[in-house]
Specification:
The chain is mainly alpha-helical. It contains 10 helices and no strands.
Length: 244
């Protein structure tokens, strides 16, 4: 079981910390029921783009971020990962369940209404969940996939476009403020990076402890066998010396 080493674990924790600070900065304003000028400006701009024909397509797209879209995505992800990355196939449903619990807790803590005055707007649960799911896909594609670089770039691009479309659909349908989306993005990134660190460093390191010990024993045995193979032959006895 491969364990992340070197600078990568520190980068994961640093990214999680920076994302968490960004989220907490937004959450302080959200908890005080305050909004940013960009929230009002973005809402006014989106209203200029609204057309009757786009209502149904964006309603369909936005379901990718709720249970109707996430459950099939999780099941598909588990099936694809089971043979190639079993550790993440097992961790994926746990990760997404944690994301759901996190969004409930953060929405309850902020208790800021949505643009249409429905409760629990901050942060966006759709964006949080999709950042976690597709962020993990991007991580695995970049670090574990053996396909060509252009295919990996295409897969990452599809993930980013999907999250962006769902995020815009939340604005278009007047379900979130722009800062709600930013809150979902930042807390989702913090949670994802921390989860990757736990799975790839802590869990993988614990699981690889015994195999590492066995590997050391094997190396020592090989060294002993090699030493015996190249050992200098013993000197012949006296009788052997006198023989012609």
């Amino acid at each position: 079981m491969k364990v992340l080493r070197g600078r990568k674990p520190r980068l994961l924790l640093s990214g999680a910390f920076v994302s968490l600070i960004g989220y907490l900065s937004l959450a302080v304003f959200a908890a005080q029921q305050e909004f940013f000028a960009a929230d009002y400006g973005t809402r006014a701009w989106v209203r200029l783009l609204q057309y009757e024909a786009l209502q149904v397509p964006f309603t369909v797209v936005t379901h990718l971020g709720d249970w109707l879209g996430l459950v099939p995505l999780i099941l598909l992800g588990m099936a694809l990962l089971w043979r190639v990355h079993r550790r993440w196939a097992i961790a994926l449903p746990v990760l997404m369940t944690g994301a759901w619990a996190l969004q409930i807790a953060t929405k309850w803590a902020a208790a800021r209404p949505r643009p249409n005055l429905d409760p629990w707007g901050f942060p966006s649960g759709h964006v949080l969940s999709l950042v976690v799911f597709f962020g993990l896909v991007i991580y695995l594609v970049v670090t574990a996939s053996k396909r060509r670089r252009r295919w990996r770039a295409l897969a990452c691009g599809v993930c980013i476009v999907t999250v962006t479309l769902v995020a815009f659909s939340r604005l278009y349908l007047d379900r979130h403020w722009l800062s709600d989306l930013a809150g979902g993005l930042t807390i989702g990134m913090a949670y994802l990076l921390a989860a990757i660190w736990i799975v790839e460093v802590v869990v993988a390191g614990y699981g690889s402890a015994e195999p590492a010990e066995d590997e050391v024993v094997t190396v020592v045995e090989d060294m002993v066998a090699t030493a015996e193979a190249v050992r200098v032959p013993e000197e012949p006895t006296g009788a052997a010396r006198r023989s012609p």
